[in-house]
Design brief:
mainly alpha; 4 helices
């Protein structure tokens, strides 16, 4: 159920469709079977995304197990402060 929802969100995202529509064709040989080539490219793309997501998940799970609740709250607060400072810096930048 969650997989189908994620798939529908990804397929209906115009940014993803535009990116893949602009990125993939440059790697397709016009003399070959375009459908097979695009299928291989899509498979490699999906495999790469899965591997990156798994690595992120494992790294975050290990980090979370390492820190206690107080330290996690401190890190959460520090991240919030950095995001606020970034927003303030962006708001103060002069635009031509």
């Amino acid at each position: 159920n969650h997989y189908i929802q994620g798939l529908l969100v990804s397929l209906s995202n115009p940014k993803v469709m535009l990116f893949l529509g602009a990125f993939f064709p440059q790697f397709v040989d016009p003399n070959g079977n375009a459908v097979a080539q695009l299928a291989v490219l899509a498979g490699v793309f999906i495999l790469t995304l899965v591997l990156v997501d798994v690595c992120y998940t494992v790294a975050i799970a290990r980090a979370r197990a390492t820190f206690d609740q107080a330290r996690l709250r401190l890190l959460d607060g520090a991240a919030g402060v950095f995001l606020l400072l970034g927003g303030v810096a962006l708001a103060m930048v002069r635009r031509p």
